[in-house]
Amino acid sequence: EAGVTQFPSHSVIEKGQTVTLRCDPISGHDNLYWYRRVMGKEIKFLLHFVKESKQDESGMPNNRFLAERTGGTYSTLKVQPAELEDSGVYFCASSLWTAPNTEAFFGQGTRLTVV
Amino acid sequence: DAKTTQPPSMDCAEGRAANLPCNHSTISGNEYVYWYRQIHSQGPQYIIHGLKNNETNEMASLIITEDRKSSTLILPHATLRDTAVYYCIVRATGNQFYFGTGTSLTVIP
């Protein structure tokens, strides 16, 4: 069974440009999460989808970040325009159920560098 | 945001049991304790989770105190590949994982 897959693995962009990260969850997993670790900080929650609906987006830092999950399958996270402080590793995770006793499986992350 | 306290680092001899402690004194009755680890810069890897009872799987054992204010992750026979940062996480009912700073475990040959 394929795990959570993220594209690209690395991205280097200039400040002010746009970048779109993609996450393919485990097949059949309705719950999809985005997390990120910026330089020197802890891994932080960004948002949670249940199918195509945003269940919780309390961790989104500002309106430069836009997450979508059309059709309830893969998800994209767009950063527009990118700023230097957006550099870090962006992780996606998925889980089968919403219940808190259900483990989530993480992808390998996308390392974003804004120069 | 992190609801857990862990030692920043630990060493363990290869082949010995690694016991990683975690304090979560403010845990609520319906919150689960999860353990994940991160090897190098890979994505967090699920290890185990529990609510009240001790749990064991093929990777590790989780011992939760009766008052649920602390827990211990046990890797019964640590190998060099277990060197990683281990995160003890209390999962909120909103389903977020609060990662904290974790414990950097080094398995020594």
What does this structure look like?
The complex is a heterodimer of chains A (115) and B (109). Chain A is an all-beta fold. Chain A has no helices and 11 strands. In chain B, 0% of the residues lie in helices and 46% in strands. Chain B is mainly beta. Chain B is globular, with a radius of gyration of 13 Å. The chains are: A mainly beta (115), B mainly beta (109).
Task: Set out the fold topology.
The complex is a heterodimer of chains A (115) and B (109).
Chain A lengths: L4 E3 L2 E4 L5 E6 L6 E8 L5 E7 L2 E4 L8 E4 L6 E5 L8 E8 L9 E2 L3 E5 L1
Parallel strand pairs in A: 2-11
Antiparallel strand pairs in A: 1-3, 3-8, 4-5, 4-9, 5-6, 7-8, 9-10, 9-11
Chain B lengths: L8 E5 L4 E6 L8 E7 L6 E6 L4 E2 L4 E4 L5 E6 L8 E8 L11 E6 L1
Parallel strand pairs in B: 1-9
Antiparallel strand pairs in B: 2-7, 3-4, 3-8, 5-6, 6-7, 8-9
Mean pLDDT of chain B: 92
- What's the arrangement of strands in the largest beta sheet of chain B? 1-9-8-3-4
Derived from helix and strand composition plus strand pairing, the structural class of chain B reads: mainly beta
| Number of helices, counting only DSSP H or I runs of 4 residues or more of chain B | 0
Percent range of helical residues of chain A: under 10%
Oligomer class: heterodimer
- Note the overall shape of chain B: globular
H/E series of chain A, N to C? EEEEEEEEEEE
Order of helices and strands of chain B: EEEEEEEEE
Give helix % range of chain B.
under 10%
Descriptive labels:
heterodimer; A: 115 residues; mainly beta; seven-stranded mixed sheet; four-stranded antiparallel sheet; 11 strands; B: 109 residues; 9 strands; 0% helix; 46% strand
Summarize the model shown:
The complex is a heterodimer of chains A (115) and B (109). By secondary structure, chain A is mainly β.
